[in-house]
Amino acid sequence: MLTCFLQDQIYSYLGNLQISKVVIASSGSLWKEHRTFALNKLRSFGFGKRSIETNILQEVEELLKFIGEQNSKAFDINDVLHACVSNVTCSIVFGKQFSHTDPAFLKILDMFQENLQVSHGAAVMTWMPFLKYLPYDFFKFKKTFGNIKTIESFLNTIIDEHWKTYQDDNMRDYIDTFIAERKRRGEDKAGTFTDYQLTRTILEFFLAGTETTTATIRWAIVYLIRNPDIQTRMRKEIESLVGSSQLPRMQHRQELPYTEAVLTETQRCGDIVPLSLFHGVDKEVFLKDSEYHKTPSLHQI
Ligand code: HEM
Fold it and tell me: What's this protein's family per the entry (predicted)?
């Protein structure tokens, strides 16, 4: 039986990025407990369901407004796309969406983006941890950590506000459900349901959810630009079903097979997370004709 067993040292790269010991970079009972909790609660706030549609449509409107304002001139869609996608995660985690001109929100988004760009430097630390003692910041290690600290303090402020305004009978968002779980367990039995763990989980949601979704949409745009005939056929299918005065919704999905196929094909060709996450086995395993030795890290290829 394959189990997710990831030893800490293998994850020192992710640890360098400070996303260790939560859902993505953990193992055993900690991983099971927080993965189950996170997926349950994300679903209860509409993740993958129609109930999140209003929040998504609000961001689509923002995106369309921005595109319209460019007056057919060339522009870079990345930042606005990143903000729109992040804001959907914000709606689940913080119970609110930020204004696209909110300086604190924009600063945090910049830091996430910057960390993604410089994170290969942190990867070097996995094999040569002593490099972090070098003067200057050749590998952008200090930069990466500095950004994470700022993002953490942004999250901690929001978590503190949630503690102050929390009400048992009004679960506003993911943070409230985490607080509720902690209260249910009692302070002395809170175990891993700490504020630290909550901050880490939220960081993981942004890291796991934002770049993946943004990259998928960017690929869809590239493919549609490069295949205008497919773009036209897809537009015709949408227009014939929902017209051009309203946005397509989840309820239309079943009746838009061509659009669905284009999006699925985008995910296949875009290959957003080609090696997926690390997985491993915690004991020798025989599966069909193959033998898997105990190993902390396996990549799917
Ligand atoms: C198009 C968008 C997305 C893609 C392509 C994607 C891709 C993936 C992949 C390949 C994995 C590893 C699965 C495995 O090997 O077991 C994964 C895991 C995960 N993703 Fe996503 N993801 C996307 C969106 C999101 C979003 C929006 C969130 C949350 C806000 C999210 C949260 C997670 C978490 C928490 C895990 C770890 C789950 C576990 O340990 O089993 N992802 N994702």
Answer: Belongs to the cytochrome P450 family.
The CA 207 to ligand 1 mean position distance, Å, reads 10
How far is it, in rounded angstroms, from Cα 102 to Cα 276? Answer: 33
User: Hey, whose CA ends up nearest to atom 16 of ligand 1?
Assistant: 277
Nearest CA to ligand 1 atom 31: 209
- Closest residue to atom 42 of ligand 1, CA basis: 209
pTM of the model: 0.86
153/195 Cα distance (integer angstroms): 12
Please state, in angstroms and as integers, the Cα–Cα distance from residue 181 to each residue in 17, 37, 208, 262, following that order.
27, 9, 23, 41
pLDDT averaged over the chain? 85
Of 203, 205, 212, best ligand 1 pocket probe by most atoms within 8 Å of the beta carbon: 212
Write the pLDDT tens digit of every residue in 75-130.
999 999 999 999 999 999 999 999 999 999 999 999 988 888 777 666 677 667 77
Cα-to-centroid distance, 244 and ligand 1 (Å): 33
pLDDT tens digits, 8-49: 444 455 555 544 456 676 777 888 888 899 998 888 887 766
Distances (CA, A) of 247 to 35, 64, 163, 223, 251: 33, 11, 37, 21, 11
Q: Angle of helix 141-165 relative to helix 174-185, nearest 10 degrees? A: 70
- Tell me, what's the pLDDT at 60? 96
Specify whether the CB–CB gap between 168 and 180 falls below 8 A.
yes
Query: What is the greatest pairwise CA distance in the chain?
Result: 62
Q: Specify the CATH number of the domain 12-226+271-298.
A: 1.10.630.10
